[in-house]
Amino acid sequence: MRIVIALAESALHRRGEKGCSEDEAHHVRAAAAQLARVADGNDLVIVHDNEHHNGHHRSAVPASRDRAPFHNGEIERDVFDAETNVGVGCRFELELRNCLTSARPCATLLTMVEVDRADPAFEHPDKAIGAFIVDERALAAAHAKHWSLTHDGIGYRRVVPNPRPKRLLQTQPLHRLIEQGTVVMCSGGGMPVVAAADGALQGVQAFIDPYGGAALIAETIDADLFVIATDMAGVILDCGTANSKLLRHGHPSAVREFALSAGAMAPKLHAASRFAERTGRRAAIGALADVERLVDGTAGTTISCERVDPSSILGGSVAR
């Protein structure tokens, strides 16, 4: 089976933790041990979510770091993203190599994702990135760079467009690695690029949703299964109430309706339902600790176009 597993930030960074390197190393090691259990006998691509690093552990105006500017005179975030993606992927690769019992090859692949310059998202940047800007000098520097900013009561943060991923540039290398039996680690967001009028590609200031990017990877490599591993048992209906119940199976159209009020779960629901609808194959959302059962369909939330008899689902519900 060919499987793409997208690791949500919540599967690697526990609520209330400070996010220090020791905590991260522990969670990466634990995640690798879980993922190794589904590697044998399967083609496996692991997609990590680097939003935790891009959104919280970096100043929006890196005044203390001396970086060479790009041709447009602006310090681009795509170089930082590239460094982050490689670092996280390599840590996973190292731990996974230690967990795999066979001489299974592993590789970390830096991905680039093409987006459409005409995407409406570029006219309405809404994805906050970087740390809060509270210093007046930093705020002046941000204005001088013509950054779009938002204020949420604590301080200002930069906002960038969040366009839909269109094409994975590393399709051929990824296919070759998989065909050779390699377990591949890569970033769901990747580096966003656009095509100029002459076809030349160039980096662009934007944010690629990591789950949408992971779904694109799964679709591109003809994955049989797309899994989003979180810290939750799956999609919980009426969460926080006495009537809460695990959604065991959902049709993509019904899942998109839930996404309208799903908060942080919404991007995951959109990505999973898009994959299921576009490929006719199965997607699953659930706990990383249950990854083996997510693969065999006995845990978490399954999203597919097939019609399921509610009586066949134990301990949950079905949404048509």
UniProtKB/TrEMBL annotation:
The record's annotation in InterPro entries points to: AceGlu_kinase-like_sf, Asp/Glu/Uridylate_kinase, Carb_kinase
Q: Name one Pfam family in it.
A: AA_kinase
Q: What is this protein called?
A: Carbamate kinase
Name the protein family. Answer: Belongs to the carbamate kinase family.
Q: Which Gene3D superfamilies match?
A: Acetylglutamate kinase-like
One GO term under biological process is: L-arginine deiminase pathway
Upper classification of the organism: Bacteria, Pseudomonadati, Pseudomonadota, Betaproteobacteria, Burkholderiales
The answer to whether UniProt assigns keyword Protease to this entry is no
The Gene Ontology CC terms held by the record are: cytosol
Q: Which UniProt keywords apply?
A: Kinase, Transferase
E.C. numbers: 2.7.2.2
Instruction: Enumerate the spans annotated as Aspartate/glutamate/uridylate kinase domain.
Output: 1-285
Note whether Ribonucleoprotein occurs among the keywords. Answer: no
